[in-house]
Structure formats: C-alpha cells, structure tokens
Amino acid sequence: LNSAADQAICQPLPVLGRDVRVPLVAGGEVTYAALDYAASAPALQRVWDDVAAYAPYYGSVHRGAGYLSQLSTDLFEQSRSTVAEFLGCRADDQVVFTRSTTDSLNLLAAVLPPGTRVFVFETEHHASLLPWRDGDVSYLSAPRTPREAVDTLARALADRAPHGPALVCVTGASNVTGELWPVRELAAAAHAQGARIVLDAAQLAPHHPVDIAELDVDYVAFSGHKLYAPFGSGVLAGRADWLRDADPYLAGGGASKKVARRADGTVDVEWHTTAARHEAGSPNVIGGYAIASACRALTEAGFGPLVVREQELVSRVLSGLAGIPQVKVLSLFGEDAPRVGVISFVVEGWNSSHFAAALSAEYGIGVRDGLFCAHPLVRTLLGSAPDALGECGAPEAEPGELPQPHGGTPSLNAIRVSFGAGTPDEHV
Ligand code: PMP
C-alpha cells in the first residue's frame, strides 16, 4: 500500500458526468472490485431486464379502470404472491411491501399490541435495535456462543412478568461478522414462553433460503437492494392479526376502504384489513415487481449451488487474511462459526478508514469501514465498552494526501468485505 508508483496510476475516470478516482492497471484498464454487498448488492441483469420490460406500462394500482392500471395491479399482487412463495408463507400470513428492512421493522413496532415487551440482543443492527425503544424493551447482553444466545433469551423470557404479549427480534446473519444466528432454536425458545419472533433477514435472505414456516418465525423483514434488486423496496411478512388489528402505519388513500364525514364534524374511517392497510399512498409498484423478479432469479439459480460457491469464497478470503499477521478477523461466536460472505477485520497499526480508503484508491477494492450501524456490537468485538458513545470514525485524510498507517492507536472501527456467490453469468 501507499507507494508513489501506485498513486501515479490512479486516475480520474468520467462516470455519469463525474470524475471518479479509479486505479488503472498496466494496460490502462480499470480494475474495480465492489465488495460491499452487505450494504447494497448490484441488481441482477435479469432484474433490470424485467424492470425495463415493465417500465413503459406501469400505472397506479388498485384504483384505475384503464388497462395500465389493471396490468399494474395484477403484476403488483402477483409480485406479492411470488414473495409469499419465496418465503414459504403460511395461509394466514400477510406480505406488506415497505421501503426497506428498517421500514418493515418500524412498521412492526407501530402495530405491536399495547403492553408488548420486546426482547432484543444489544448486538443487533440499529434497524432491529432501535424501533422498539419507546416501548418496553429488554436489551440482552452479547452472547459468545449460539447456545448462550438461546439460553440468555430463554432466561429473560422466563423472568418476565406479567406474561403479556412479547416479541423477540433477531438477525439471521450478522451484517458485521456474517455469522449465522440460531434462528430455529431462538424461535422455539420464544414460542415456549408464548412470545412471537421477528427475523431480520436483511443479510440472511440473499445467502440462504428463508422459509418462514420451516424456521417457525412469526415475521420476516428484508430489503430488495441487498437481494439483487434496486433500491426502494422491502418486505414485512408474517402473522396477519397484529397487522390487521392495529391502526395503519401511514394514514391515507389506499389504506382506507370507506371514509365519511360524521354529523358531529369528525371523520369516520373503515380501514382495509389486507396488506393495503399499511401501504397507504401510491405504492412502489416497480419496487415490488423488482423484488419478485430477484426472488424468482434466486429460486431458479437454487440456493444449494450458490451456498457452495459462496462458502468457497469465504474460505479463500479467511485463509488469505489468516496469512497476514497484522490482520484480526472479528467474530462473536468464534472463528470457525458458520458465516455468510460478510467478513470484518482490523489491521494492526492502521486506522480502518484509512486502510479502506487505500484499498480503494490503490487497488480498486471497494470495502466498507466504520461501525456498520451496529455500534454496540462492533465495540464489543473491538474490546471497547459496548456502551461508550465515543468517536466512531477516523480523521479524514487531506485531499490529495494518501492515507498513512499509524502505529499504536487501537482501531475504533473496522473494515468489512462482503460478497455473494459470483456465478459466471450473474454476479449473485
Ligand atoms: N438489518 C441488517 C442485518 C442489515 O444489515 C441492514 C442493512 N445494513 C438493515 C437491517 C437495514 O436495511 P435497510 O438499510 O435496507 O433498511
């Protein structure tokens, strides 16, 4: 890293009218490896093709007599069924199209029955950690093994009193370590104590099949832009009753079936009892269609071969990193714990942000650095206090100055590489 010769071949390249600094290899060819799939994965060509084919025909859904509206309503509802099938939904589950996993979990937080106690590990992504904070929440301390996670949850649920409604929120695969959480066992522990469980599948769904009935979870949330569809759409799927019984997440057209002015001057509303109840306004029809297209593509590719290929890549990255003495790979459950293609590490003597900037500027390797929206988890992994709200990032390098290694200071944040299976014809 950091040699003047390498800097000399890093050139501005016009991309969409802007100059982006990219490294060029000897023949003047651009090299760039985007290894930040855990943040957002590139959309599959097939998904772009499906969206492009539909784009000239989209119209508003559920309310038009014209053929564009009819076509769009049909495709939107068909997309809902495709997602339900992808998730192995039960007969009484609803599939609500949202903006993202964050939106899905906030929607669930908004429909919890009064008095619901929420149980969440402090190691969760902020999208799973924070939506419940205005209610009655128990934050569970970081487990160091999957077994400890199940025992910690079982104990916390058993200790709760009174035994009103309860919800457990857990991530299937960590966006920091890639480690898999024991979802089935956690669901069994939750149900044994009469609690429900929501699975944050933002990182799990792109890498493994997520079958709501087989995992026996009550709700699943995920985002299109991590599942090889473009931005702007997400899903909350699961038990219809809480969704049906609560007021709509957003009030407006589409969610309301009948609205009338009462004699006393107030307004009377009858809300839909279907998923439309929580999809007020004009829904993101193209987003739903794109998610369904990605679900179909993954189902057709088959998770079996994708998992095998991805695990080969995981092993290759881990063994490469193991050969560099200054690198420490982060893990909660131990280095041999099963994980998806998400690997975070620190490099001794280097500030992680500087290291990540150097990887991009000099080698064309795009990674993520920081605390990955999971501040308590990353602080635990780095050995600092999980409750310390301290400095997260690193001082910026001056423009034109190459990041420098610095000895001594322990890293306050980490570097993450994340990827999919990389099939030959598609970058899954
Ligand atoms: N949960 C996990 C585990 C995630 O990795 C992410 C995204 N990094 C989210 C939730 C939030 O997803 P989105 O930003 O699409 O709402």
Automatic annotation (TrEMBL):
It catalyses: (sulfur carrier)-H + L-cysteine = (sulfur carrier)-SH + L-alanine. It comes from the Bacteria. One of its GO terms (molecular function) is transaminase activity. This is Aminotransferase class V-fold PLP-dependent enzyme. Pfam families: Aminotran_5. Keywords: Aminotransferase, Pyridoxal phosphate, Transferase. Belongs to the class-V pyridoxal-phosphate-dependent aminotransferase family. Csd subfamily. Residues 35-428 form the Aminotransferase class V domain. Signal peptide: none annotated. Its cofactor is pyridoxal 5'-phosphate. It comes from Streptantibioticus ferralitis.
